[in-house]
Write a structure and sequence with these properties.
2 copies of one chain form a homodimer. The first copy, chain A, has 10 helices and 14 strands. Chain A is an alpha/beta fold. The longest helix of chain A has 8 residues, at 118-125. Chain A is globular and about 50 Å long. The interface between A and B is large, with 54 and 54 residues.
Chain lengths: 304, 304
């Protein structure tokens, strides 16, 4: 028994490549020259006993991810029956499409716990399409912030607010991009002996968050963009990272600098946008690695 | 210029294999013995000029389908720019998850027409999550039944009602499984010279439908189940095909019998459930083929 985390999808919304993107990273795939591995959208799986797993976020690519990862596939029918999954819980860290759309794949009368903050539960409830998750099978658990709870057998979790924003599809005319509340959370996962922090979306690192992470053994953190204006510079979008609710990796107010003195043993970037230069071997990836960061990839597994 | 149809996904809801299914077809994939090709969920692409494509239904697997099919990928950036897709329209034949969930992938400020009946437009409008399709880019067109309209450059379409039911997530306590109206439609596609019928969901074949299809060059038709009680017999579900709004292939009141005297030149089963024995080489597939049917597969392309 040890805490295992499995990166089912290392990419941010859209994945790598993104369906309609000709930016240099995505275009490499469309042109048939693939200098690096493709990546599906943001999902982390966690287990303590290796048999029961929780998904942290349900990406639109979840069916493809399950097909790629034996850990998440139906087990021996002679023991587990004709309908089976090792996925016992799905926890959402925000209401973004890349984190919730996969719920629509996890239908077909399968029992699991759907775990969210009250605010995200409301977002789902406002969309009747999520009634595809039959309440006779799927238990919706709403969890308050800063309260440890049993997530699956052998794994406790605690949700804490991090700066973020409402999902894009709920944005009004003005958007506060650094709300701290139930819209965007980080998760601390523990098996009693070790703990892991998972924070795939985070707009800034205030002192309270820095203190919480200090001395952690493993943090998987928002690696959406390298520079705040990366999408604008590459001509594929008009928004900065700050506008999207994501801190950048580089620069004086970036995550690499913010983590420099936190004494975190192992730091892994996840939720990496297809525009991010760290996908490639190059100076940015070298800089991140020199600062002690790892770049996640689909199928990356870490045991604590 | 000729009408081209491309089966992006040949399977019904859940795909083959289905994420939580240990039925014999799905289990073959989980156990590593794959006697046949996997299949993604229901989507047909159509084009006349080979450059502009319409998708008929947007399956949860659409990102994977685009990655597999060069026809649907972004084109040369020097000519088409940094954001591009040959997908100019998406037409929905009903509101089922396997036909609409992929809309959530087709976001990222990309222009296309979203074409539905008024009833299905209402289903989408009741779910704010579909606002991810920015109305500044995505034009929602509601189309009346039995009226030809321009779908994309070189392709006209006409929607017609076929027997069906409301999507599962909108079912009440009682369900009429053979409603004829805007909930479930078939599509006739034409380039002026040739026409194709696409009917991925259909609960029965009344005389009016039989007459419409008589003498057609190509019909792609609902191949969900081989026998009506197939899911019950295999122990993976409690519903008959009739209860799910799908006519079966075999038997006196099945689709093979109903098509027998319709003089359709080419008949192709699509939207095939993972429980259907026709995926395998065996007596059922042989019987369908002997009756002049083809079994669709992902990537199957037909030119008229």
């Amino acid at each position: 028994m040890s805490l295992r985390v499995l990166v089912a999808g290392a990419a941010a919304g859209g994945g790598l490549p993104q369906w309609n993107c000709n930016g240099s990273n995505s275009a490499a795939f469309w042109r048939g020259s693939q200098p690096f591995q493709a990546a599906t959208q943001s999902c982390l799986a966690v287990s303590s006993n290796g048999s029961d797993w929780a998904l942290l976020n349900a990406s639109p690519d979840i069916r493809q991810q399950i097909m790629a990862l034996p850990q998440l596939q139906p087990r021996d029918p002679s023991r587990y029956g004709l309908r089976d999954t090792p996925i016992r819980a799905v926890l959402l860290t925000n209401g973004d499409i890349d984190h919730v759309a996969g719920l629509l794949t996890l239908r077909e009368k399968q029992a699991f716990d759907l775990v969210t903050t009250p605010v995200i539960a409301d977002v789902l409830a406002q969309n009747p399409i999520f009634d595809a998750l039959d309440p006779q099978f799927v238990t919706r658990r709403t969890i308050a912030l800063d309260q440890p709870f049993a997530l699956i057998d052998g794994v406790t979790a605690e949700l804490f607010a991090v700066p973020g924003k409402v999902p894009l599809y709920l944005e009004g005319d003005t958007v506060d991009t650094e709300v701290v509340g139930e819209q965007t959370v980080g998760v601390e996962l523990s098996d009693g002996a070790s703990s892991v922090f998972y924070i795939p979306g985070c707009a800034a690192i205030p002192d309270t968050l820095a203190q919480r992470l200090t001395g952690a053994k493993l943090v998987l953190f928002d690696g959406t963009l390298w520079t705040d204006d990366e999408m604008i510079q590459q001509g594929v979008g008009q928004k900065t990272g700050k506008r999207m609710g994501h801190i950048s990796m580089s620069g004086a107010d970036g995550s690499i600098a913010a983590f420099e003195n936190l004494s975190v043993t192992r730091k892994v970037f996840v939720h990496i946008n297809n525009t991010n230069p760290v996908w490639r071997n190059g100076p940015e990836r070298a800089e991140a690695e020199a600062a002690g960061w790892e770049i996640a990839y689909d199928g990356m597994e870490i045991r604590l």
